[in-house]
Amino acid sequence: MPKSNYLFLNNTNNANEINETNDDNINTNIKNEIDNQERNEHPQLNQEDDSILNNEIKYVENLRIQNATYTGEVLNGKRHGKGVQVWDDGAKYEGNWEDDKSNGYGTFYHTDGDVYQGFWKNNRANGKGVYISADGGRYEGYWIDDVQNGFGTEKWNDGSSYKGNYEMGKKEGYGEYEWSNGSVYKGYWKDNKLCGKGVYYYTDGKKFVGEYYNNVKQGKGKYFWTDGKLYFGEYNEDKKEGIGKYLWNDGRVYLGFWKLNKQNGLGRYTNPNEMKDKYGIWVDGKRIQWIDEEDLKNESNEHFNDYQRILSFDTTFTGDDLEEDKIVQNI
Predict the structure, then answer these.
(1) Which of 87, 141, 204, 309 could form a disulfide with 68 if both were Cys (CB 3.0 to 4.6 A apart)?
(2) Virtual CA dihedral for 15, 63, 23, 164, nearest 10 degrees?
(3) Going by C-beta distance under 8 Å and a sequence separation of 6 or more, which residues neighbour residue 292?
(4) pTM exceeds 0.85 for this model
(5) What secondary structure letter does DSSP report for 275?
(6) Among 70, 112, 104, 107, which residue's Cα sits nearest to residue 87?
(7) Rounded mean pLDDT, 111-133
(8) Residue burial 268-294, b: 16+ Cβ < 10 Å; e: rest
(9) What 8-state DSSP symbol labels residue 54?
(10) pLDDT tens across 125-178, in order?
(11) What 3-state class would DSSP assign to 14?
């Protein structure tokens, strides 16, 4: 991100000389938009304004300021107007100055080849801007005090990309991320991590719609297979755990308890070819016994509470709040 603090502080970096970056690499539309806004907000930059030219603004060349050389406009001994400052290590800022600080529109060329072009306020990137990394990464969006803040789009050199909201340099709120392998997440973030409701599209066609916490499935969710199978229920640390319903594509249904992605505990098994549902106990995905439902109705039965949860599942876990079109936004 923009290292604009070192615009005015002594720089001890020993980086190599920067690679010059042609303005053609910067988004032309954004540059034009920024230029127009800059002229509107800073009319003193119009060189045809005689009232400004007749004021105290002067043009200087090769003015030494600490470990840098400045060429451009000054007002009352301070950098003010258009100017270029080049540091001894090769870094360069070219753009507008106000009251001896970078303010308005400008471009900063880092010694490592990174380039930031956009708005500045008091020596820091503020407003709309584009940051292009020497390794091919690119961020285009909004900034506050040198960090991404607000809506932006970011692309990395491995082909992955993100568009959405940032807060103090981190993905926060709603955003959409596409990995280099083609998988996509559309949903909510917190502190750069998947957190909240979201939809994850796998490259093989499977899909998860549900809740995340710290990058893993946590809470309620629906998992869709391409052959028609479906699970919806509870997750814990990225695995099916708690109560949930699994539907096979031939109409069979398991509704009951899970642990570590396997049926574990009391469950109800439904076969469309049979007249009556069956209850049983599963361990590590295998049924070890059947249980008479009449026994489960007895409050003294050790599985009574789990039986009641199974009976109420379809009314308490409707999944209406986990509809894809209620989560995915148009951005």
Answers:
(1) 87
(2) 70
(3) 279
(4) no
(5) S
(6) 70
(7) 97
(8) bbbeeeeeeeebbbbeeeeeeeebeee
(9) T
(10) 999 999 999 999 999 999 999 999 999 999 999 999 999 999 999 999 999 999
(11) coil
